[in-house]
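User: Could you write out the 3D structure of this protein bound to zinc ion? I've included everything you need below.
Assistant: Certainly. Input first, then the structure.
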Amino acid sequence: MRLTTVGTGTAAPVADRVQAGHFVEVGGMRVLLDCGSGVSFRLASLGIDWATITHVALTHFHADHVLDVPTLLTAWRHGMLPPRSAPLEIIGPVGTAALVDRMTDALGISWREYGFPVTIREMPAGERIALADGIALESRSVPHTAESVAYLIEGPGHRIVYTGDMGFDEGLARWATGCDVLLIECSLPAAMAIPTHLTPEQVGAIAKVASPGLVALTHMYPPLDKVDVPAAIAAHYEGHVVVCHDGWSTEL
Ligand SMILES: [Zn+2]
Ligand SMILES: [Zn+2]
């Protein structure tokens, strides 16, 4: 099982962090968690084979998490020879089909007409599905937008939890307890705290409850550059914390 943080940025365009996108390889499944602007080109610059992605799982419908879905669909149809024939599954909260409908219809071609089989699977929060034998994906509602979910991906002997965007929620921390990697949003410094995103201090409080093998930070807004993020987390949590960059990777 391998996790690569493809895009560790947000809605704010910066040179070295594209929008949200995280890539998990597990047992032949190649899963992209969120797909914001810049993710498809970052996959290419990191040498990750975007042509063979099997699943795209969306946490919510904000632009910085979904805008490159049409870019990738177009790449699979017009950006490779021969064009893609392998099936693709797009997974997301209830409303994902309507979102992808609107995005692709606006661009003049429905997702049903890209020339390879696309399935859209809407997962009510709390559901657990099998991606393949021994590989499960589970979602949990998080406080951000009405549809927002976190995901747990479980492969043989290992679990990764990806929070997507969220405000503080101790229930999420309990749900994530004992995971190998807690890939968690860390958006804004405490001085700019808002209810729908996490500060480093709140990440520390969640990590203290969840006690993961590793805390991996993503979704960082530029004001965090002026803060000693590991120190702010360390005031609440003593475990291993990584401030991820685009292209950071870990093998489980
Ligand atoms: Zn976001
Ligand atoms: Zn969001």
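The longest helix spans residues 68-78.
User: Perfect, thank you.
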